[in-house]
Each structure stands twice: as structure tokens, then as C-alpha cells.
Amino acid sequence: MSDSKIKTFVIDTNVFIHRSDAILSFKDNEIIVPLSVLEELDNLKRFSDEKGRNARRAIRFFDAQAANGGSLHNGVKMDNGSILRVVRAGDTILPPDLKHDKADNRIIQTALELQAAGRQVFFVSKDINARVKAEALGLKAVDYEKQKIDATRMYQGWREITVSKDTYDKIKEDKKIEWKDSVRSNEFVVAKTSENDEPLLCRFFSVNSELRLVPSRKSSVSGIKPLNIEQKMAFELLLDDSVPLITLLGQAGTGKTLLALAAGMTKVAEQAKYNRLLVSRPVIPMGKDIGYLPGSKDEKLSNWMQPIFDNLDYILGINKKKDEEKGIDWYIKNKVIEVEALTYIRGRSLPDQFLIVDEAQNLSPHEIKTIVSRAGRNTKVVMTGDPYQIDSPYLDTNSNGLTYLVEAFKGQDLFGHVTLSHTERSDLAELAANLL
Fold first, then answer.
1. Which among 142, 164, 187 is the end of a domain?
2. Secondary structure (3-state) at 306
3. What is the DSSP secondary-structure string of 209-249?
4. 158 lies in a domain?
5. Do the Cβ atoms of 95 and 41 come closer than 8 Å?
6. Which of 6, 8, 227, 318 could cross-link to 223 by cystine, CB 3.0-4.6 Å?
7. CATH number of the domain to which 425 belongs
8. Handedness of CA 247, 232, 269, 323 (dihedral sign)
9. pLDDT block averages, 10 residues each, the chain of length 436
10. Which domain covers residue 238, as residue numbers?
């Protein structure tokens, strides 16, 4: 490859925090790691969270590349054909508006100096503001696209199909029909006719290429009844033990967390299919982290898990007449329900659990992989979240782990997904979700 065709990618710190081996995605080109990036990684490596772990992995990766021979200063040839170099910012004066003592600006300065030297430079960052600043200074700035999908075209888990009257009648009578059209395993089909017959809710089974009519559920699930067809789909998957991985996406008030908890309580407390209902959510603080809160671990977690407790209170309140003595405290004390931060789940093996991870849109693809890989035998994993409500600074609707999981697993027999679009919390909640 001629030098004129070689691209120079200057990688920002946050890319390595997102994925520690990110530079392997850039083949047969020049990869520049500014010295300021190493400084930032060094500052982050002491933390025990995902950022700290990825910082340590990235540093070890650089060390391993240097150990293969060569110099990070002069350039190390990697197995993917790229040259890896560590470069410090020179004495080029940045615009007076940008402070030189800020790491982001020194990283951008490194890219500017390489571009001034005649290289075809691309500044790669997951920080939107850093990309905007780089573009304003004349650099080509791009996001790290690996593990990124288009959320506007994401798999919904169900579709509407208009069928002939004969097909409609056959499904209704036989409760199933052979189906050769393109539908994914565990995908739902809402069969309609041009005569405006009542829609039939079906589910596709790839083993024998059948659309099967979803039976009407007469009894409630832990006192909760589905309020729309999407919630019927969710319960169909949540209560099916043959599908161990479920994702439920939807805006606030669509019932995704409530449905998951109701199904979990039924499977654990009533049917004893699983030993424990384990509920977790990522700790994404708006201010100081959980470690700064006073009290024991359980007391600290109660603040972050209050939305979970609210839903459990609602479910147990509906069933209070059945057993007035069993409140949330009783279930937690007797290990029927366990509420845990994701930090403490890491490294555990989780057999015979009904695991719910709420707000999963705030997890990276690597974190999602870590959680799902914790699932032991006879464990069901349910991920819920709204990809349009991201609290993590380096994730967005297209790059978060939840949407990545949906796209990666769609069509697998062990996976089911439903996107819920109807808000059932209240008319006011639906109006707020649509207008605000």
C-alpha cells in the first residue's frame, strides 16, 4: 500500500474505555495514541468499574504490542497490518480559546500536528464535543463505529401481516400454520385481513417453520394482566422457560420492568422454576457515586433500586389478600428476591436464577456480554431499557449494549425480543413521553 493511501487514526481515550482493543478494528493503517491518552488511562486504571478495567486492559495491550518487537515511539507493526505509535503533542500553539493543560485539547493538538505534516488524519472519539471541536479546527472527526447499529431500523420483535381470509380461518381453526415467509425465530406476527377481522397474535417457531396462535391468557401473572397486544407478547416470552434470553425495549410507562418482575415472581415464588429472582441495574449516578453514600451496601443500594421496589410493592399490593404477611422484606430475608448492583454480579456464576437487568441501555456491549455470560444452567436473563434515555456519557442510542444485543441475537432460538410502544402508566405519562 502506498503512503498516499495510508490513513492516520488518532484515537481518543474514551474509545479505549468503550473497547480496550479498539485499535484492532483499524487494519493496514497508522494508529496514533497521543501521550495524553496514556496519562488519562493511567488515571483511570485505579478504578474498579468498567472504565478502570478497560483502562488496564488497554495499557496491557500496548505493552504486549511493544514486547513483540519494535518501539512505540518509532512504530510497532501489529498483526492486523497497522503501525502503532505513541506520539506527544509538540509546541504548536492552539487557538487561545482552548486551554493547553486540558487533555482533550492536547489530543486534538496531536492530530492537528500530524495533519500539518501531510498525513491523512482522522480523529476518532466517542466524545461528541471533542469531535465538534476537532471539526471546527479543520480535522476529520469520526465516532468509533464498531458494535454500532442503526436504532431507527432495529429489530422490533414483531410485525403486522395481512393474510388471506382462508389463511386467517386456518390459523384460527388449527391454532397453527406452516409458514415459509421470512420471519425470525420467536418473532411475533399480528395476522390481519382486509375484511377487518379481529387480529390474530401468532409466534413463529423456526424448528418446524410454524406460526402458532398465541393462546389467550385467562389468569393474571402475579396479579398483572396485559393491557395491550405488545404486553401479551412480552408475557408469552417471559413465561416460556425454553427462551433463556429476553429483551424488552420501550419508553417510560410501557410496563417493561413491571412485566418482567411479575413474570419473575410467578416463576420463582409460585412455580418454583427458579431458585431466586435476582434484580439489578447499573449504577449511573447524576452526582457522586454509590461509595460516597452513607450506610451499608444495602442501604446505599436502596436509593438506586427504588424504582424496582416501587414495582414490587405494586405487585405485592395486588396480591396482599393472598398472603398479607409476605412483604418485600420477607422475600429478601428468605433469599427469594435479591437486589444487587451490577458491580457485585461480576465474576459470579448464576445458575437457577431469574435475572432481570433494568436500565440496560446504560451498559456497553462488553458489559452486556459479561452479564449474559454469567448465566448458568437453568437461568433466564431479562434485559429491559429505553435506548433513547442514555445516562452514560460515552454511549448513545446506536452504540449502547442493549441495542447491540438485540441486533446480535435476533433470530436465535434461545432469544426473544419485544419493543413496546404503548404507554399504559397513565394518559399524562403517555403525553409527556410523546411531547417532552
1. 142
2. helix
3. TEEEEPPP--S-BTTB---SHHHHHHHHHHT-TT--EEEEE
4. no
5. no
6. 318
7. 3.40.50.300
8. positive
9. 76 92 90 96 88 92 86 90 91 80 92 94 94 95 82 92 93 92 94 90 93 89 93 97 97 92 96 95 55 54 77 83 71 89 74 94 89 90 94 84 94 96 75 69
10. 225-435
